[in-house]
Design a protein that fits this description.
heterodimer, A: mainly beta, OB fold (Dihydrolipoamide Acetyltransferase, E2P), five-stranded mixed β-barrel, B: alpha+beta, five-stranded mixed beta sheet, four-stranded antiparallel beta sheet, 30% helix, globular, Csl4 (chain A), exosome (chain A), NA-bd_OB-fold (chain A), Exosome_cplx_N_dom (chain A)
Chain lengths: 179, 245
């Protein structure tokens, strides 16, 4: 028999700081843990340490990416050291630093998988990296406007004109390959 | 105005309520599927709708982004059919701007903005029918909408208006009582801690009476909290049943 679910609302006092440690969806004030979301109370029982008290909502809304999150973005412009791109509508503009030749890795209009390494500060935007095998260009169009097919980690070929272009291609995850 | 007594000798108001009695409140959360959060509230005949989007990236000029917290953007709008006489209200007129600013101050006090730096939270409130206490209805609707969107808040924000007639403080004024011209106070409260998010009055009231009026408004706001609490718990319970917990 499942234990009765306890629902809580913002401002509800959950417990003392001695009985639990605050998790997501909570905040602390005057030595007590209060809920900051309307949802279900969950206690994770740790061995030895205090249980982590958190409030979970059923539908986790899509928030901004955190450090280490993989994001999909579209390249909007390139300069010799960095390129600027537009992320999906819900994400911020990132700036990417690369050591290799940019023009041989990305072109404007490419769709790129990247990982967030820093949220940036007041002046700059997100910092992303593609320095992994699974990160890089996913979709790219050739100069003739046709979507290209990846042939190696550094080349893509246009199926219409058969010209090869250099890109830093993302390795496809094995579960997505159709054989 | 001769003939209109706001408080009878037996202690009844124009609509039959007692001095400290609230109007009937009905509220619903999640009325729009496409917005992140939405809510609809009816306080007597005052009807307000609130819609929340966010947190998301800053729209427009990126220079407005705050490095350590989220930007709360509130917009108030009043439907042309909301008052007794149909009145076209252009966007950006003084009353809408002032109301939007008040709502922003109120919610910046309650939303935990430090959790979402350099992002923006949009709160849009529309009054569909105005029968007094529009600020309070907007705040209550917006609280429910922010909760529906899953944005972390310190506490509920519950608001109520109050007035002063014949040495008695009245809570939750209707349009008739507001139009009579007496002092009116709008209070937005964080019930758990008793902190005041916003207190607004632009009429003349003797300072000896202020405490009494403030107490009436605070008590009414706590009653609103009891009701909104019940609405939110009901909604969360229904949502989890639907998702098959």
């Amino acid at each position: 028999m499942a234990p009765p679910v306890r629902y809580c609302v913002p401002g509800e006092r959950l417990c003392n700081l001695e009985e639990g440690s605050p998790g997501s969806g909570t905040y602390t004030r005057h030595g007590y843990i209060f809920s900051s979301l309307a949802g279900c109370l969950t206690k994770s029982s740790e061995n030895g340490a205090l249980p982590v008290i958190s409030v979970m909502r059923e539908t986790e809304s899509q928030l901004l990416p955190d450090v280490g999150a993989i994001v999909t973005c579209k390249v909007s412009s390139i300069n010799s050291q960095v390129f600027l791109s537009d992320l999906e509508p819900s994400l911020n503009n990132p700036v990417l630093f690369l050591q290799v030749e940019i023009y041989k890795s990305f072109r404007p209009g490419d769709i790129v998988l990247a990982k967030v390494i820093s949220l940036g500060d007041a002046q700059s935007n997100y910092l992303l990296t593609t320095a992994e095998n699974e990160l890089g260009v996913v979709v790219a169009h050739s100069e003739s406007g046709v979507q290209m097919v990846p042939i190696s980690w550094c080349e893509m070929q246009c199926p219409k004109t058969h010209t090869k272009e250099f890109r830093k291609v993302a390795r496809v995850q094995p579960e997505f390959l159709q054989t | 105005m001769a003939g209109l007594e706001l408080l009878s000798d037996q202690g009844y108001r124009v609509d039959g309520r007692r001095a400290g009695e609230l109007r009937k409140i009905q509220a619903r959360m999640g009325v729009f599927a496409q917005a992140d959060g939405s809510a609809y509230i009816e306080q007597g005949n005052t009807k307000a709708l609130a819609v929340v989007y966010g947190p998301h990236e800053i729209r427009g000029s990126r220079a407005r982004a705050l490095p350590d917290r989220a930007l709360v953007n509130c917009q108030y709008s009043s439907a042309t059919f909301s008052t007794g006489e149909r009145k076209r209200r252009p966007h950006g007129d003084r009353k809408s701007c002032e109301m939007g600013l008040q709502l922003r101050q109120t919610f910046e006090a309650a939303i935990l903005t430090q959790l979402h730096p350099r992002s923006q939270i949009d709160i849009y409130v529309q009054v569909l029918q105005a029968d007094g206490g529009t600020y309070a209805a907007c705040v209550n609707a917006a609280t429910l909408a922010v909760l529906d969107a899953g944005i972390p808040m310190r506490d509920f924000v519950c608001a109520c208006s109050a007035g002063f007639v014949d040495s008695t403080a009245l809570a939750d004024l209707s349009h008739v009582e507001e139009a009579a011209g007496g002092p009116q106070l709008a209070l937005a409260l964080l019930p758990a801690s008793g902190q005041i998010a916003l207190l607004e009055m632009d009429a003349r009231l003797h300072e000896d009476h202020l405490e009494q009026v403030l107490e009436a408004a605070a008590r009414a706001a706590r009653d609103v909290h009891t009701l909104l609490d019940r609405v939110v718990r009901q909604h969360v319970r229904e949502a989890s049943i639907l998702l098959g917990d």
